[in-house]
């Protein structure tokens, strides 16, 4: 049985690490007498203007992306304040980080510093307790394995093609277990590779930032047709075994001067774009739609949720940036029925858990998510199970920084044994 002394933080140290794009990031190692926790901050390419700010060095080294100042902040400012505190007191630890930073967007310490530190402390506390991280964070009720949202065709800023929408997603909702969901998804992913290679040539199966293929496509129906064909070729049925999803990331193709969206070489006003989404949902069994409008357009989020929310998970990412303040605005406007969750958008685990709680209380589904510039840290896999999110978004079944999360979920399902439950279709069933 661990004593209180076993949980006291004895050291906090920042170390340089590289993310999946080869950019520097912050790794924090937190130690207690009885355990060690390691947290690594990921980084996004498609970012909300509302996110916590990463601390970067600028200049020529690392292309301006260096984190020497951030690491110095960990080792000279943060560490002295955390040493001697009880690692189990997560809200206290995160409160100290917020107090030291003293800005609304973590710009003094850096969101990369606070994220890595907050996660490292939680892991150290779990290790000191001698229990799995998902169990430490979620208790004995943490047993739901999330349905994976797999970005298998990349567009937007994640690829070098002409697709406006950023992610085209397969959802193995009809599987009986998480392990079976992974098997089915891998089979479709390989089927998709054959389809793309035959139709577009071998270079079409080069992968983008999140492990999805980046074929030379120009119009948004092309990838959806490809996914439908790949699912059929793998022996599965769209609308039963699999659903499809889209992350439009529409802030990236919104023209504020024209107040319109550029899709497939044409300009769409918000109403026309909404009509396009309705057509795609009807044609392709789409059950998930993220950031269909730009991050300041609560009105049209509300309109599409009113129109499609009974059968589609309409999710805010850039709209909310994992920040309770913006989420509450969305709740008031009935803007979405789903909310993306990225710890580094807000900068601490405590604020993230508060955000999830507020979303849940409002009937909004939390969707745990990776970043395009991610790392081998599987933290979000444990987080998804801990909070019973039922959905995780962490890329294609390729690239080790994505597979680290899937492999961790396979391990969790195995460790739970017959207690494990796979969310499956439940997050996507018709809602009133």
Automatic annotation (TrEMBL):
Gene3D superfamilies: Enolase-like C-terminal domain, Enolase-like, N-terminal domain
Keyword Magnesium (UniProt): yes
Cofactors demanded by this protein: Mg(2+)
Broad class of enzyme this protein falls into: lyase
GO BP of this protein: glycolytic process
GO CC entries: cell surface; extracellular region; phosphopyruvate hydratase complex
UniProt-annotated catalytic positions: 210 (proton donor), 342 (proton acceptor)
Residue intervals of the Enolase N-terminal domain: 9-137
Enolase C-terminal TIM barrel domain sequence ranges: 142-430
Residues annotated for Mg(2+) binding in this entry: 247, 290, 317
Function: Catalyzes the reversible conversion of 2-phosphoglycerate (2-PG) into phosphoenolpyruvate (PEP). It is essential for the degradation of carbohydrates via glycolysis.
HAMAP family on file: Enolase (MF_00318)
Name of the protein in question: Enolase
Organism, scientific name: Acidilobus saccharovorans (strain DSM 16705 / JCM 18335 / VKM B-2471 / 345-15)
């Amino acid at each position: 049985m661990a004593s209180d002394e076993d949980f006291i933080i004895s050291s906090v140290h920042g170390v340089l690490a590289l993310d999946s794009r080869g950019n520097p990031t912050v790794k924090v190692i937190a130690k207690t007498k009885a355990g060690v926790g390691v947290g690594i901050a990921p980084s996004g390419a498609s970012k909300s203007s509302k996110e916590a700010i990463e601390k970067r060095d600028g200049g020529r080294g690392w292309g301006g992306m260096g984190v020497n100042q951030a690491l110095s902040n960990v080792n000279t400012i943060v560490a002295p304040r955390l040493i001697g505190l009880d690692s189990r007191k997560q809200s206290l630890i995160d409160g100290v980080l917020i107090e030291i930073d003293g800005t609304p967007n973590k710009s003094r310490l850096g969101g990369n510093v606070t994220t890595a530190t907050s996660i490292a402390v939680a892991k150290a506390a779990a290790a000191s307790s001698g229990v799995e991280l998902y169990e430490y964070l979620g208790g004995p009720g943490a047993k739901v394995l999330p349905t994976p949202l797999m970005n298998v065709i990349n567009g937007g800023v994640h690829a070098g093609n002409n697709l406006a929408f950023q992610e085209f997603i397969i959802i193995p909702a009809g599987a009986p277990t998480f392990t079976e969901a992974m098997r089915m998804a891998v089979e479709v992913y390989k089927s998709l590779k054959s389809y793309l290679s035959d139709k577009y040539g071998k270079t079409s199966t080069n992968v983008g930032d999140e492990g999805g293929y980046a074929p030379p496509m120009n119009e948004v129906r092309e990838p959806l047709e490809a996914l439908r064909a790949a699912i059929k070729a793998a022996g599965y049925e769209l609308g039963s075994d699999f659903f499809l999803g889209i992350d439009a990331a529409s802030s990236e193709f919104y023209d504020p001067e024209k107040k319109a969206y550029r899709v497939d070489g044409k300009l769409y006003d918000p109403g026309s774009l909404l009509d396009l989404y309705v057509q795609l949902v009807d044609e392709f069994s789409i059950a998930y739609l993220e950031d269909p409008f730009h991050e300041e357009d609560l009105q049209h989020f509300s309109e599409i949720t009113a129109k499609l929310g009974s059968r589609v998970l309409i999710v805010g990412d850039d709209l909310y940036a994992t920040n309770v303040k913006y989420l509450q605005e969305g709740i008031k406007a009935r803007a979405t029925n789903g909310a993306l969750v990225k710890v580094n958008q807000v900068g601490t685990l405590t604020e993230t858990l508060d955000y999830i709680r507020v979303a849940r209380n409002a009937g909004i589904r939390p969707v745990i998510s990776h970043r395009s510039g991610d790392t081998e840290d599987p933290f979000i896999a444990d987080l998804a199970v801990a909070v019973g999110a039922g959905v995780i978004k962490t890329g294609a079944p390729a690239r080790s920084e994505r597979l680290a999360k899937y492999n961790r979920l396979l391990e969790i399902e195995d460790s739970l044994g017959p207690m494990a439950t796979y969310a499956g279709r439940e997050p996507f069933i018709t809602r009133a």
